[in-house]
Amino acid sequence: MSFSIVCGGGFGDEGKGKLLSYLALADNPSIVARAGVGTNAGHTIQFEGKEYRLRMIPSGFVNPNVRLLIGAGVLVDPDVLFRELKDTQTIDRFGVDYQSGIIEKKHIEIDSTNAHLKDKIGSTGSGTGPANMDRVLRKLKIARDIPMLEPYLTDVSVEINDCLDEGKSVIAEGSQAIFLSLFHGSYPYVTSKDVSSSAICSDLGVGPTRVSEVIVVMKSFLTRVGTGDLPGELSKEETEKRGWVEYGAVTGRLRRAAPFNYELAKKAVRLNGATQIALTKLDILYPDIAKVNDIDALKGETLEFIDRIEKETKVKISIIGTGPSAEDIIDLREHL
Ligand code: IMP
Ligand code: MG
């Protein structure tokens, strides 16, 4: 039995989608359940020569044995959901909690025109903030109010807890990241709820005593979309020079970039109770390890970087990303 939480250790876009697709294939869990805010997150997965940018369907879809769930704490946009169900052909193994909130056109309208949200906060315009506002006012529609969702309704908490009782494995897919948390992030430049590992438990209806591993995903450099402080932020020219240019999966905005920050990493570890760190995009810093799977490739400066992260955070790096595809991974878990 294991219940592993995967969550973001930066400002989002750490490569959670890619890591989750690897874990779904390597560990063959019974369920991958999506937590987090909603369609404001885009998880990028490269699989069998195709790129997916998923805002609703859990990244674990790459393994056909995995049941795919969306938790009660997550906001669902039915248009986005049905498009992705079609794209990923996963309708026969998908379930959404009765109580997941529903994003309507009016929420998207407010999110993409309201000056405070759009310009000051730099929201993704996906309607999540205004929908969570209605949820707090207790007037938001939930999944059980939508006839089109009827065939897929389920109690995600019951499904996950039953699965764990039967000795099977479940992976919780967090979205956004700790420094975008409404409570622990760089307020007010944050998303519309907490997104820590504790919030992920709550999104899915699983108690903290059932958690086996908390895998905090950190990218080898920091990026941030939207507004708000980014410690050590580089100029656009320097970002280009270093080859760190990225664009947002949901909005297409250029991501601002900065070097890895050890203080933030320590904080991310504590706020989430990390038991492991997954370090992604190490091949961008050290191109000699691109697409490598072999642990022996970790030497010299690469190894020094890893050692320093482990020393400063006091948490082991268990998985390293060496490229965009699910198989571009160095899995160190059996060496821990
Ligand atoms: P909102 O969540 O759309 O309201 O946006 C609030 C802030 O969080 C903005 O700066 C967004 O760019 C950022 N944000 C929200 N979700 C994500 C994500 O999944 N990745 C990166 N940034 C995000
Ligand atoms: Mg993203």
Walkthrough of the structure:
With 336 residues, this protein is an alpha/beta fold. It has one domain: Adenylosuccinate Synthetase, subunit A, domain 1 (Adenylosuccinate Synthetase, Chain A, domain 1). The protein is built from 11 helices and 16 strands. It has a 10-stranded mixed β-sheet with strand order 9-7-5-2-10-1-11-14-15-16, sandwiched between helices. The protein has a two-stranded antiparallel ribbon with strand order 3-4. A hairpin with a 7-residue loop joins strand 15 and strand 16. Helix 3 packs across helix 5. It is globular, with a radius of gyration of 19 Å. Magnesium ion binds next to loops.
Task: Kindly summarize this structure in a few lines.
By secondary structure, the chain is α/β, with parallel strands linked by helices. It has a single domain (2-335), classed as 3-Layer(aba) Sandwich (Adenylosuccinate Synthetase, Chain A, domain 1), CATH 3.40.440.10.
